Amino acid sequence: MEQSMTLMSAQVHFIETRLCLIHIPLHLYSNFLQPILQLLLPTATENETQEPLRPSSSHAGVAWTAQQPFINISVTPIECSVACSRTSAHELFVPVIESLDKAAQDQVSLATDQYVVIQVDGEGLEAGQRVLELTSPLAMAGISIFFITTYFSDYILVPAKSKGQVVTALEKRGFAFEKQADAFVNQSRHHHRNASSSSSFEVRPPSSPPPTSISELQIRTFALLERRHIKPQVDSTIRLIQCAGRKNPSLSGSSINEAELHLGIVKCLVNNPRFLSLTLTDTEPASLLLEKRLIPQFGSDEVLLGSKEDILIPITLDLRDLPLESTGIVCGVAGRLVGGTTGGMQEAVEMSYLSTARAGTVMVSESELERALEALRVGENGIKT
């Protein structure tokens, strides 16, 4: 991990990796199942990949989850999306793409930009407010992002070319920047950037003028969605739970749980899931967002952490018609949910967020689904659409 920052009780740091984003249409999912499973069963050596295989952290769940700094595999009603190292993308996925006919090849995409990962640990705010707090400075700076909420942490993927801009934007918002990975310094919200703190990064201005306020950002976001006829989509039969593999791999019986976790994940991926998001890092156990109906694939109840009764319903935005570099979507949606669902004695809707290559998905509890939809269906002029 290269750099660290803090805000409130959250610890924020970059993960040392360069990611490729892959979009796979659902009807081609079976063609890519083998390389997806190969990501879970890495057998390459350091010399073969030309990237160091990272040792398991004392906090990591099992070795197979810790051989790459970051992987996300997501299947949603819109697409299959994979975030993995560019080396893995070219070794595992490109050969499959090249084996397809021309029409199918054109439907699969590998992002040209490389992405870096920001990991956010801690519980500084409620989930929706945390998404807004973390993404708003980047959106205001015109930086495109992908946001992934997991059981343990939040992750923000940003273009590697914008890294200097990211550091500047976060520092201006009160994050303290230290180059030592283990140095975390709390600062006030009015902390101003030290001009020399990110001098090794190139700061690139956004290609178009960024919004001047969160309110303007929300207006722009929903005006864009309305122009492109992008509306929230809900299938209430998709019932999700947020869960994770267990820590403390040294405990008795953990090897059995690890095997069941791995086998369960493979079973879920093989059986054409309607919705599944798996995040693997080299510092934490596997984190899963998956359909409740898939829980039996993991055998024992001891395999997964997390409540099996707290049901989440996904609200999906199909972003396939938007450029990959579009900005402000995550922040605009989070801002609408945080600000548009409060009033009187009501608190904001609790939400989590999953960005994939060509979609954005908000997860809310069953009991808050209607409130969330009402807020998201309000157009740019405050009129329900």
Descriptive account of the structure:
The protein has 385 residues and is of the alpha+beta class. Helix content is 27%, strand content 24%. The chain has ten helices and 16 strands. It has helices at 33-40, 46-49, 86-99, 102-105, 127-140, 163-172, 214-227, 254-270, 329-340, 369-376; strands spanning 4-7, 10-24, 70-75, 80-85, 109-110, 115-121, 146-149, 154-159, 233-234, 240-245, 276-281, 287-291, 304-305, 312-318, 351-356, 359-365. Strands 1, 2, 3, 4, 5, 6, 7, 8, 10, 11, 12 and 13 form a twelve-stranded antiparallel sheet that branches. A four-stranded antiparallel sheet has the order 9-14-16-15. A hairpin with a 4-residue loop joins strand 3 and strand 4. Helix 1 runs antiparallel to helix 3, helix 5 (127-140) packs across helix 6 (163-172) and helix 5 (127-140) crosses helix 9 (329-340). The protein is globular, with a radius of gyration of 20 Å.
Give a summary of the structure in a few sentences.
This protein has ten helices and 16 strands. It is α+β, with helices and mostly antiparallel strands and 385 residues long.
Integer-rounded radius of gyration: 20 Å
Instruction: Give the % helix.
Output: 25-40%
Silhouette: globular
Average of per-residue pLDDT values: 80
Count of alpha/pi helices: 10
Biggest sheet descriptor: 12 strands, antiparallel
| Coarse structural class | alpha+beta
Strand content: 15-25%
Low-confidence blocks of residues:
44-62, 180-206
Distance between the termini: 44 Å
**Series of H and E elements:** EEHHEEHHEEHEEHHEEHEEEEHEEH
**How many β strands by DSSP?**
16
